[in-house]
């Protein structure tokens, strides 16, 4: 038990976070697999559009993060009651109906991310095999490998991990995820810089990206632009953890003021990092930038560094899958236990001794439900193995409600902003613009998936 002096705020464990720790949490949460597609996104938009999109999304995210900081305590931003989680904040300020919509958006995002992580991890496994194949047999060798067997391997791994009790509470998981995500992102940036500095390096870039009539048709250009915007949106979908990060801060000075400082530092740092991946990646590959700059084989050597980068991605996503899946596991199990409290299938546990590990308390419902969930996400990833389209779809679906709509609605309600005032109109215009962008991104990503399915045959070797 923690010592008495560590307790504060009505018996809860003392919060010791500062602007520095909060900034670090924001950066480690933001830097993830979304950076892998940024070079491709910039290639579709060009130097002007790509740079503008990165800046605009960072400013919108910064604005909504600052607005959310004032919603942590309600109704007064300094002395009001704490809202320690995003969904608690929505329920307290906006009420039950909005709370249900928020839950739907959050769980849809979690579900989509587990599918995306399955696909991304498998692509990185394939990239490692291809990297060694190209190194051994030359860059022109036929090294095509199907993703399916690697998705199955990833799925089997997650089935086992999903049975570990309280997996998401393991503190080392976040540390490993942060180290791995920074690791592969830095490797991608370093390889891009090395490629730009290569003697004789010359790739085609332009202010507006891929050239209509030469590299793409006019229709393809339009769809690619919308998909690229959705991909960039995916990189900025981390506002849902702002409340949890603010809940780690010391109560003095006021959490909202410290959180605003941390948001400026954290989001600015993340944007600089995103720009490094997207813009330097575009400089390295030009208009031919691959969808994932560590697996698209713009880089062939040093093959061992490419392998390390992809290994970092795999390790990161193995843990990240569980972080995103555990809330889904928990809510279904909680609902089932509430609905059938006397059902032994739901509640009975069996002690299973595992050599060298200890005793595992097995519940049959958990085993079957969690295994079924992992199998489902693996099958969907196999059927729709389109990295940029999946990333874009997740980004478009989650960015608008979770990063824009709910934060602005909560702020307008908490601050009692007068209707049709300049501030009210400005925030409403941002909501409307982001809704249009999200809808266009969703349509473009679905169109890309449908187009891909015309030539792709699920469950068959490439």
Feature tags:
mainly alpha, two-stranded antiparallel sheet, globular, 4% strand, 68% helix, 6 strands, single chain, 14 helices, 462 residues, Hydantoin permease
Brief account:
The chain has helices spanning 19-30, 38-69, 86-94, 96-137, 148-161, 171-197, 218-235, 242-246, 255-285, 303-339, 344-347, 364-383, 387-414, 422-455, and strands spanning 7-8, 12-13, 73-74, 81-82, 349-354, 358-363.
Query: Strand portion, in percent?
Result: under 5%
Number of domains: 1
SSE succession: EEHHEEHHHHHHHHHEEHHH
Which residue ranges are poorly predicted, with pLDDT under 50 across at least 5 consecutive positions? 1-11
Report the mean per-residue pLDDT as an integer. 87
Helix content: 55-70%
Structural class: mainly alpha
Distance N to C terminus? 56 Å
CATH C-level class is: Mainly Alpha
Looking across the biggest beta sheet, what order are the strands in? 1-2
Count the strands? 6
Q: What is the overall number of helices?
A: 14
Please compute the radius of gyration using only Cα atoms: 23 Å
* CATH T-level fold name: Hydantoin permease
Q: From the 3D coordinates, which CATH architecture would you assign?
A: Orthogonal Bundle
Can you summarize the main beta sheet? Answer: 2 strands, antiparallel
């Amino acid at each position: 038990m923690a010592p008495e002096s560590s307790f504060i705020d009505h018996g809860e464990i003392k919060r010791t976070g500062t602007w520095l720790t909060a900034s670090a949490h924001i950066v480690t949460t933001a830097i993830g697999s979304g950076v892998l597609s940024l070079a491709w996104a910039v290639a579709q938009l060009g130097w002007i559009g790509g740079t503008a999109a990165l800046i605009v999304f960072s400013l919108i995210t910064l604005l909504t993060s600052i607005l959310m900081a004032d919603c942590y305590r309600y109704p007064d931003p300094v002395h009001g009651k704490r809202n320690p989680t995003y969904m608690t904040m929505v329920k307290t300020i906006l009420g039950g109906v909005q709370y249900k919509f928020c839950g739907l958006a959050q769980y849809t995002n979690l579900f989509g991310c587990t599918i995306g992580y399955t696909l991304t991890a498998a692509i990185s496994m394939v990239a490692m095999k291809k990297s060694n194949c190209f190194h051994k047999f030359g860059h022109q060798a036929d090294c095509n490998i199907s993703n399916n067997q690697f998705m199955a391997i990833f799925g089997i791994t997650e089935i086992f991990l999903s049975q570990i009790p309280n997996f998401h509470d393991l503190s080392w998981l976040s540390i490993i995820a942060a180290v791995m995500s920074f690791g592969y992102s830095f490797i991608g940036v370093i390889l891009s810089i090395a490629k730009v500095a290569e003697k004789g390096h010359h790739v085609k870039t332009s202010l507006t990206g891929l050239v209509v009539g030469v590299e793409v048709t006019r229709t393809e250009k339009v769809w690619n632009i919308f998909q690229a915007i959705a991909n960039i949106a995916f990189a900025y979908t981390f506002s849902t953890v702002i409340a949890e990060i603010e809940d780690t801060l010391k109560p003095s000075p006021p959490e909202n003021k410290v959180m605003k400082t941390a948001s400026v530092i954290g989001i600015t740092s993340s944007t600089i990092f995103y720009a490094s991946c997207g813009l330097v990646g575009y400089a390295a590959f030009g208009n031919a930038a691959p969808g994932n700059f560590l697996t698209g084989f713009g880089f062939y050597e040093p093959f061992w560094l490419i392998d390390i980068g992809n290994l970092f991605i795999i390790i990161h996503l193995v843990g990240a899958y569980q972080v995103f899946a555990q809330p889904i596991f928990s809510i279904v199990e909680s609902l089932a236990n509430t609905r059938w409290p006397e059902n032994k299938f739901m509640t009975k546990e069996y002690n299973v001794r595992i050599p060298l590990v200890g005793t595992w308390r097995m519940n049959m419902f958990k085993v079957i439900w969690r295994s079924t969930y992992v199998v489902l996400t693996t099958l969907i990833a196999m059927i729709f193995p389109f990295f940029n389209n999946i990333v874009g779809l997740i980004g478009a679906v989650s960015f608008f409600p979770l990063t824009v709509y709910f934060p602005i609605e909560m702020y307008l309600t908490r601050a009692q902003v007068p209707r049709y005032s300049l501030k009210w109109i400005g925030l409403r215009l941002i909501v409307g613009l982001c809704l249009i962008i999200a809808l266009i991104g969703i349509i473009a990503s679905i169109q890309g998936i449908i187009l891909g399915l015309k030539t792709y045959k699920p469950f068959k070797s490439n």
